[in-house]
Design a protein that fits this description.
By secondary structure, the protein is α+β, with helices and mostly antiparallel strands. It is built from 11 helices and 14 strands. It has 2 domains: 203 residues, Sandwich (Jelly Rolls); 109 residues, Arc Repressor Mutant, subunit A (Orthogonal Bundle), CATH 1.10.10. The two termini are 35 Å apart.
């Protein structure tokens, strides 16, 4: 694996911890992960070649997650394989479609089961220059635009992605060679730029983008006040929307009600704290209270139903999670 300042740049990593997986995805600065039942497993291939970052992720469980794109990055998000496709920003993705990733873009993703995704990102200025090199025309990306690309262009791009991830698995370190890295960068940028230029806007999703931004504000408000009791009217006031609007956008963007979201998020934050506390000095009761939970009997029952073990059992095996060594079980 190549690294820059201690940060992995190219290689393959396996995960049993969804939070670690999420944070390893470039732009994966999300605040939440809700899982379906079972043991979470994921693999992430990261390839940095020149101006371009390629990441291919495979995960096995249904999941609701949030993510954000850095202010200077743009790119494309697509899916491989025959698994059911996710709902992104409230839009059900379809075969042959790619999502445009724009600077500062915020999103929620709901996957119904296993998923195999690919993200290609680079600085906006680098994409503009690369487009001029390839086609003679500058290129800008509209955040949240859903593109249906010509079948041969999509197949071209995904075939290069598949070949690159396979060779990374069989020949680690192959892209340390500047010649090989330059060749892959060129091989990826050409079909990527052609897809962005010749793809038809299937759905602009600008209204969805506005609602996605409100959903992110709602999520942030819940996160900032996890240690106290929250009411839906109070949350609506803090983000400036009506209760009806909040219910509609939560169902569209998150797939669950605001009340369900708050309850699940609180439970996941409590679990994270239990796993990362010193079981010799911490207590389940104190951690529950720190997360605004006061009905301790109900908390224990709900927690066990959700994660497959009691809060005290989680605390007894508490440790700072190590990559590939923690097991998360949950149910939305």
């Amino acid at each position: 694996m190549i690294s820059q300042n201690g940060v992995p740049v190219s290689g393959i990593r396996s995960f049993l911890d969804p939070d670690q997986f999420h944070s390893a995805i470039r732009g994966g600065n999300g605040l939440l992960t809700f899982l379906g039942k079972g043991m979470f497993k994921a693999e992430l291939t990261t390839i940095q070649v020149g101006r371009l970052t390629l990441q291919r992720g495979r995960e096995n469980l249904p999941r609701l997650s949030s993510s954000g794109i850095p202010a200077n990055r743009v790119g494309m998000l697509g899916w491989l394989g025959d698994d059911p496709l996710p709902v992104v920003r409230g839009v059900q993705m379809r075969r042959g479609e790619f999502l445009c990733l724009g600077p500062g873009m915020q999103s929620h993703h709901r996957t119904p089961g296993p998923v195999d995704f690919v993200a290609l990102t680079l600085d906006a200025s680098d994409l503009a220059h690369a487009a001029i090199e390839v086609t003679g025309t500058p290129l800008a990306v509209t955040a949240g635009k859903v593109l249906r690309v010509p079948e041969h262009l999509g197949a071209w791009l995904l075939s290069v992605v598949d070949a690159a991830t396979r060779v990374t698995a069989t020949t680690p370190g192959i892209f340390t060679s500047s010649h090989t890295a330059d060749a892959l960068e060129h091989a990826l940028l050409r079909p990527m730029i052609m897809c962005l230029m010749h793809g038809a806007a299937s759905r602009q999703a600008i209204p969805h983008g506005r609602r996605a931004a409100i959903a992110k504000r709602f999520e942030a408000a819940v996160e900032a006040n996890f240690d106290r009791t929250l009411t839906i009217p109070e949350l609506c006031h803090s983000i400036g929307v009506s209760e009806r609007t909040l219910r509609v956008l939560c169902q569209e963007q998150l797939g669950i009600s605001p009340v369900r979201f708050v309850a699940l998020r609180r439970l996941h934050l409590a679990r994270r704290a239990l796993l990362r506390s010193d079981h010799h000095t911490a207590s389940v009761t104190q951690i529950a209270m720190d997360h605004g939970i006061w009905e301790f009997g109900r908390f224990a029952v709900t927690y066990k139903s959700l994660f497959g073990e009691s809060p005290s059992a989680t605390l007894r095996r508490a440790r700072v999670p190590a990559e590939g060594k923690d097991t998360f079980r949950a149910s939305v």
